[in-house]
Amino acid sequence: MAKKVPRYKRSKYKQSHVTTRYKTGPDLITPTKLWAILYLALRIHNQDIHLGDMIRYGREGRLSYYRLDRLIPPEVSLTKSDINFLSRAMDITHKGMRRIIGQMAKFLGVTRIICPDLLSLVNRYCTELALPKDISSYAERLISLFPPKMMFDKKSCIPNYEGRAMAFIIVVLKTLLSLDDITENEISNVVDKINRVRCVFGLQNVPVQYQ
């Protein structure tokens, strides 16, 4: 079909057409790419603010993303279409931001991104989840035994540092509590059998005494 279009029309179309590659590439600044630049600055200076924090700040309205019209000076009048354009309808995701950050890092020539302290992240998540202190201790030993190598080196996106820290916690919990999708089901089956026997003998209201 394109061959039937005159050459001058094709040339004129190419001059005015904006490709999807250009729209999604690092050359065109968008709110998510500004966030990517901000995250790179935080990692270069090794600040204790992570991508998950930025996404939460955006959803809480503490970091502008969903309502960019707030950044416009009050003396500038905005139409309804302008406000709709400055309001982000799509939700920002962790994986999508890591991909955009990786693109911006390559574009800006940022080759060294400091890996955050995973132990600090583990301790923070254990505190936020109100987990016992022993969980963080076991996770620390696990990290020392199997230290992860999470270097950003010509990859499509930056490593998932927060996900790896949470993975250590999950592994410790699954190991200590036998959460292997088998043992917990067997425990539930045994409890059901005990409860049925207690009902048969009319002991359902009698508290269980442990030796």
Structural notes for this entry:
By secondary structure, the protein is an all-alpha fold. The chain folds into 2 domains: 99 residues, no CATH class; 94 residues, no CATH class. It is 56% helix and 0% strand. α8 packs across α9. The radius of gyration is 27 Å and the shape is elongated. The model has no long low-confidence stretch (mean pLDDT 82).
Q: Which key terms come to mind for this protein?
A:
nucleus, 211 residues, zinc-finger, mainly alpha
Topology:
Layout: H1 7-16, H2 20-24, H3 31-44, H4 51-60, H5 80-86, H6 94-108, H7 118-128, H8 133-145, H9 161-176, H10 183-200
Helix pairs in contact: 3-6, 7-8, 7-9, 8-9
Average pLDDT taken over every residue: 82
Class of secondary structure makeup: mainly alpha
Overall structural domain count: 2
**Uncertain ranges:** none
How many angstroms does the end-to-end distance come to? 84 Å
Q: Helix count, per DSSP? A: 10
Number of strands: 0
Largest sheet: none
Helix content: 55-70%
Radius of gyration: 27 Å
What gross morphology would you assign?
elongated
What share of the residues does DSSP label as strand, in percent? Answer: under 5%
H/E topology pattern: HHHHHHHHHH
Protein name: Rrn7/TAF1B C-terminal cyclin domain-containing protein
Keywords: DNA-binding, Metal-binding, Nucleus, Transcription, Transcription regulation, Zinc, Zinc-finger
Organism: Solenopsis invicta (Red imported fire ant)
GO molecular function, one term: RNA polymerase I core promoter sequence-specific DNA binding
